[in-house]
Automatic annotation (TrEMBL), chain B:
Recorded family membership: Belongs to the complex I subunit 4L family.
Subunit structure: NDH-1 is composed of 14 different subunits. Subunits NuoA, H, J, K, L, M, N constitute the membrane sector of the complex.
One GO CC term, this protein: NADH dehydrogenase complex
Entry protein name: NADH-quinone oxidoreductase subunit K
HAMAP family recorded: NDH1_NuoK
Primary localization class, coarse: membrane
Originating gene: nuoK
């Protein structure tokens, strides 16, 4: 019973939050709503007995990714409303049709996968976090290491992209200021 | 009782919201937000399938999706900041310089 109530509450809240993200004109509101939606999604993970993923969702998404967006938004002018011109309608219609077909395919998936068999069935007396560790460090060890390398590469590239040009940019700005002064 | 279909419908709904965002937005930062919505919607679907079929592969996949999303944001925001410094705008229309 509690599961049903929790599911509907979290669904409504998540859809509402993400609706705000998509519709809001203010970038700051959109970011806050996205952070809220991420927290509510971790609620689904807890309902589905995936505690580890729920915690990872809160820590990584709401913690790390949202903090990164917040830092990124300091570089942009966020107080101004986002002005957007609509692109051609033809692209939007084509993409809508493709996405509608995609959603029908997603919802039909249980029908075609009736005979699916669990390759890693849940063991008895083993908690979720223990089970995740068992599978992650046996079968998925190589993807795990690759993910670690990918995160390292992403971190280095993020630092290089965001910070290396910072001095250059400031230098260029000073040069431009001097040139403007000399010009006048 | 909540069944797998409930979760799949929710996943489809959230995915549709994300797609609307991708189609409607022309601000690149907002496009990033919509991409996060898409990834999160798929994550819910994976975990729901993992629970109702008693298989842990779905949770593993969701775990790696989170890792990919984290690195995507790190690289994407770096590029976005660079573009903003050069162009003063993160609008998608400012990227159209290869018009034939």
């Amino acid at each position: 019973m509690y599961e049903v109530i929790a599911f509907y509450i979290f669904s409504i809240l998540t859809v509402g939050m993400f609706g705000i993200v998509v519709m809001s004109k203010n970038a700051l509101y959109a970011m806050s709503a996205l952070a809220g939606g991420m927290i509510f999604i971790s609620g689904f993970f807890f309902i589905l007995d995936a505690e580890f993923l729920g915690v990872v969702q809160i820590v990584v998404y709401s913690g790390a990714i949202m903090a990164l967006y917040a830092f990124g938004m300091m570089f942009f002018d966020t107080t101004r409303d986002v002005s957007e011109k609509m692109r051609s309608k033809k692209i939007a219609y084509t993409l809508s049709i493709i996405s509608a077909v995609l959603i029908v395919a997603i919802l039909c998936m249980p029908l075609v996968s009736e005979s699916i068999e669990a390759s890693y069935p849940a063991m008895e007396n083993v908690g979720n976090i223990q089970m995740v560790g068992l599978i992650l460090f046996t079968k998925y060890l190589v993807p795990f290491e690759l993910a670690a390398i990918m995160l390292l590469v992403a971190m280095i590239s993020g630092i290089v992209l965001a910070s290396k040009k910072m001095d250059e940019h400031l230098a260029i700005e000073e040069d431009e200021c001097e040139m403007l002064k000399e010009g006048k | 009782m909540i069944t797998l279909t409930h979760y799949l419908i929710l996943t489809g709904l959230l995915f549709a919201i994300g797609l609307v965002g991708v189609m409607r937005r022309t601000n690149l930062l907002m496009l990033f937000f919509s991409t996060e919505i898409l990834l999160n919607a798929v994550n819910i679907g994976f975990v729901a399938v993992s629970k109702y079929y008693g298989d842990f592969t779905g949770q593993m996949f969701a775990f790696f999706i989170i890792a990919v999303a984290a690195s995507e944001v790190a690289v994407g925001l770096g590029l976005l900041i660079l573009w903003y410094k050069r162009n003063g705008s993160v609008d998608l229309n400012s990227l159209q310089m290869m018009k034939g």
